[in-house]
């Protein structure tokens, strides 16, 4: 059984930022292939600022960490990922509210709320070559109860990200390319994979 | 009587400001506020920046938001959720420059944001 404390939530943001920073160029390359090429820069700026904010503040709750993260991402990312990642963290913070510690079941529901919020915000469904393609299977996996572990989480997220390669985009900037969007991994799915990889790292350390 | 305010959202500050300038030639009695670019003035859009523009454009009769591409529509919706300004509406799928001009002319005639959206959807053959 995994739980999350406010301290771990901060570590999650820090670890995500580290992964985004070291893969900034790669995210840019992916986005140059099928988008407007700003995903690496936008995500690196957004998570840099988010880390700076949450690392320098004191938190009692996971919800508090997520709320600040949401506010920073919303205002600092600048691309489509700003309102989407902002909505994800905002929905999680609204669901978790003042809970001092978050159980795995709480967290699974929070991720489900985040997914629904993003689908509504982006008017997107699974299978359109967007970050939803990673969030959807991850949310389903987390609801899985006792079978949830860090290694499996990475596996599910990675497989979902790789799966976007063969999909034709029907949402987002890549949709304008139609069939030409095929053969490229979706940049938003990749940054979402880093987010869940960082989460798995946090869980592994906590075991 | 106060008129409906207009917010012009573009990925580029220049596009938003330029569109405002085109409208200002013809319409003098409507608050038209550009909200282009990121907080740092780069290419992109920002919900808090749009929210600020909405509050500036509001004269008590509501605000209509027009946007260009990609994330702009999502950030426009987010700004509407963030602000306490009442009667804010996003004009979905309406071209920024042409639609912004028509919207400002209609706002100048005293129409509400809802009425302007209905008329824009007709003008641009979305209905």
Automatic annotation (TrEMBL), chain A:
<keyword id="KW-0418">Kinase</keyword>
<keyword id="KW-0808">Transferase</keyword>
<dbReference type="InterPro" id="IPR004007">
    <property type="entry name" value="DhaL_dom"/>
</dbReference>
<dbReference type="InterPro" id="IPR050861">
    <property type="entry name" value="Dihydroxyacetone_Kinase"/>
</dbReference>
<dbReference type="InterPro" id="IPR012737">
    <property type="entry name" value="DhaK_L_YcgS"/>
</dbReference>
<dbReference type="Pfam" id="PF02734">
    <property type="entry name" value="Dak2"/>
</dbReference>
<feature type="domain" description="DhaL">
    <location>
        <begin position="7"/>
        <end position="201"/>
    </location>
</feature>
<dbReference type="InterPro" id="IPR036117">
    <property type="entry name" value="DhaL_dom_sf"/>
</dbReference>
<protein>
    <submittedName>
        <fullName>Dihydroxyacetone kinase, C-terminal domain</fullName>
    </submittedName>
</protein>
<dbReference type="GO" id="GO:0016301">
    <property type="term" value="F:kinase activity"/>
</dbReference>
From TrEMBL, chain B:
<keyword id="KW-0808">Transferase</keyword>
<dbReference type="GO" id="GO:0047324">
    <property type="term" value="F:phosphoenolpyruvate-glycerone phosphotransferase activity"/>
</dbReference>
<keyword id="KW-0418">Kinase</keyword>
<dbReference type="Pfam" id="PF03610">
    <property type="entry name" value="EIIA-man"/>
</dbReference>
<dbReference type="InterPro" id="IPR012844">
    <property type="entry name" value="DhaM_N"/>
</dbReference>
<dbReference type="InterPro" id="IPR039643">
    <property type="entry name" value="DhaM"/>
</dbReference>
<dbReference type="GO" id="GO:0016020">
    <property type="term" value="C:membrane"/>
</dbReference>
<dbReference type="InterPro" id="IPR036662">
    <property type="entry name" value="PTS_EIIA_man-typ_sf"/>
</dbReference>
<protein>
    <recommendedName>
        <fullName>phosphoenolpyruvate--glycerone phosphotransferase</fullName>
        <ecNumber>2.7.1.121</ecNumber>
    </recommendedName>
</protein>
<dbReference type="GO" id="GO:0019563">
    <property type="term" value="P:glycerol catabolic process"/>
</dbReference>
<feature type="domain" description="PTS EIIA type-4">
    <location>
        <begin position="3"/>
        <end position="127"/>
    </location>
</feature>
<comment type="function">
    <text>Component of the dihydroxyacetone kinase complex, which is responsible for the phosphoenolpyruvate (PEP)-dependent phosphorylation of dihydroxyacetone. DhaM serves as the phosphoryl donor. Is phosphorylated by phosphoenolpyruvate in an EI- and HPr-dependent reaction, and a phosphorelay system on histidine residues finally leads to phosphoryl transfer to DhaL and dihydroxyacetone.</text>
</comment>
<comment type="subunit">
    <text>Homodimer. The dihydroxyacetone kinase complex is composed of a homodimer of DhaM, a homodimer of DhaK and the subunit DhaL.</text>
</comment>
<dbReference type="GO" id="GO:0009401">
    <property type="term" value="P:phosphoenolpyruvate-dependent sugar phosphotransferase system"/>
</dbReference>
<dbReference type="InterPro" id="IPR004701">
    <property type="entry name" value="PTS_EIIA_man-typ"/>
</dbReference>
């Amino acid at each position: 059984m995994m739980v999350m404390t406010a301290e771990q939530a901060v570590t999650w943001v820090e670890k995500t930022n580290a992964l985004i920073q070291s893969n900034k160029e790669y995210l840019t390359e992916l986005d140059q292939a099928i988008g407007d090429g700003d995903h690496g820069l936008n995500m690196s700026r957004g998570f840099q600022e988010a880390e700076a904010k949450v690392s320098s503040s004191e938190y009692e709750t996971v919800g508090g960490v997520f709320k600040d993260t949401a506010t920073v991402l919303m205002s600092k990312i600048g691309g489509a990922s700003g309102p989407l990642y902002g909505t994800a963290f905002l929905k999680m913070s609204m669901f978790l509210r003042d809970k001092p510690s978050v159980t795995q079941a709480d967290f699974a529901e929070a991720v489900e709320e985040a997914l629904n919020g993003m689908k509504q915000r982006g008017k997107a469904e699974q299978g359109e070559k967007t970050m939803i393609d990673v969030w959807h299977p991850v949310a389903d996996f987390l609801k899985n109860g006792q079978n949830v572990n860090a290694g499996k989480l990475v596996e599910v997220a990675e497989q979902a990200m790789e799966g976007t390669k063969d999909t034709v985009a029907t949402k987002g900037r890549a949709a304008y390319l139609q069939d030409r969007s095929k053969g490229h991994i979706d940049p938003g799915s990749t940054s979402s994979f880093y987010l869940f990889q960082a989460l798995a790292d946090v869980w592994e350390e906590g075991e | 009587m106060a008129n409906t305010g207009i917010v012009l959202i573009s990925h580029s500050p220049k596009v938003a400001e330029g569109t405002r300038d085109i409208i200002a030639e013809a319409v003098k009695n409507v608050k038209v506020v550009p909200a282009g670019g990121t907080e740092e003035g780069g290419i992109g859009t920002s919900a808090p920046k749009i929210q600020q523009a909405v509050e500036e454009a509001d004269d008590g009769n509501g605000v209509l938001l027009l946007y260009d591409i990609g994330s702009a529509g999502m950030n426009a919706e987010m700004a509407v959720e963030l602000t306490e300004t009442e009667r804010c509406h996003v004009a979905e799928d309406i071209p920024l420059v042409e639609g912004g001009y028509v919207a400002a002319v209609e706002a100048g005639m005293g129409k509400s944001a809802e009425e302007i959206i209905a008329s824009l959807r007709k003008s641009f053959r979305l209905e």
